[in-house]
Structures are given as C-alpha cells and as structure tokens.
Amino acid sequence: MSPEDPGTGGRRTGDPRTARTKGRLRESLLAECATTPLAEVSVSAVVRRAGVGRATFYLHYEDLTALAVDACADVVHAAVDALHAWQTGPAALPPARPPAALAAFLAGAADRAPLYRTLLLPGGGGPLGDRLHRELRERARAERAAAGAPHPELVASAVAAAFTGVLADWLHGAVPADPPALADHLWRLLLALHRAG
C-alpha cells in the first residue's frame, strides 16, 4: 500500500504523527463549520482550534476546501456502506425495503447540510460529489461484476449518478422529503436501475 492511500480519503497512513495532525485539523474544521459557513471560516481559526501552526496546515492541505473534502471523506464511505448494508454475499438479492443504514446516513447528512452543500453542488457536482460518484460507481461495478450481472459499467454509472444527484438536490432543498421517505424513494429508484440493466 502506498503512503497515501486513496481509500482513506488521501490521508497518509504510514506516519502516525501525520495522521494525528490531519485528524485534529479535520475535527477543528468540522467544529468551526458547525456554527460558521465554510466560506467564512479562516485558516487561522482552524489552526488555532487544532493547536497547530499555519505552516503545518499548508504542509498537508492546499487550502480550506481541500481540508473540507478530506474532512467529509467519511460521508462518502458512509454513503457507499449504507447503500450496501444489506449485502451478505455477491449473489444476495436486495430487499424490497431500504436498509436502516440508508435513512440513518441521510439523517446524519442533514445535520451537516450547510457544509456538504458547499462541496456537493446541485446535480451532484463539486469535489465531494465527484468523490462520491467515483467511489459509489466503482463499488457498484465491482459487486455487479462479481455477481455475474450484465452491464456492470453501465448500471454502476447510472446508480452512482442517480444517488449523487438526488442526494445533492435534496441537501439543496430541491427534493422535499424527510430522511426515511427519501431512503424509500431512492431505494426504489436504485432497484429499478439495477433491474433495467
């Protein structure tokens, strides 16, 4: 495994000090964004809260947006895991109802909606949307291929685009639904895409 593993949101895995420092910076940014929009958060406030210097910040991150994407990488993994929480093996059939983890994920995303809206633009664009689409597409493609289902690339792309776009539009207020209702609607949509392929 390389020192910087894409599976960890670009976080260095070889140096515990680096991991601790970046962890403090991520926690500090999320704490700042709990009360202040990202556009109004300063590097000074983040490093002060994290207890590190500005030089240390810039050693690890180009700017606050890069830190924010890294801090939000867990939401990408949580989303992918929530959509696949029902799976017990490559040949398992999806249930008619969404896994409870999906509604729980959406409720958590709603709690941090102001920050996520900065990074996940309407329609699913933006740095967080790009990462979510990429990771969800790869997971769906690999699992569909492992199950021997047809058109793994096509269906995986459609599933990733639909989920990322709907999630983004919901966070921006264009899709009115509470988390359990959205989980139901999304699940039916994603099942239809799988069946269509």
Can you describe what's shown?
Helix content is 66%, strand content 0%. It is mainly α and 197 residues long. α5 (73-83) runs parallel beside α8. The model is unreliable at 1-12 (pLDDT under 50).
Number of strands: 0
How much is the radius of gyration in Å?
18 Å
Number of alpha- plus pi-helical segments: 10
Distance between the termini: 34 Å
Q: Low-confidence spans: pLDDT under 50, at least 5 residues?
A: 1-12
Order of helical and strand elements = HHHHHHHHHH
Portion of residues in beta strands equals: under 5%
Structural class: mainly alpha
Mind describing the biggest β-sheet?
A: none
Shape: elongated
Q: Please, what is the average pLDDT?
A: 87
Please give the share of residues in helix.
Answer: 55-70%
Question: In brief, what are we looking at here?
Answer:
The protein is mainly alpha-helical. It is built from 10 helices and no strands.
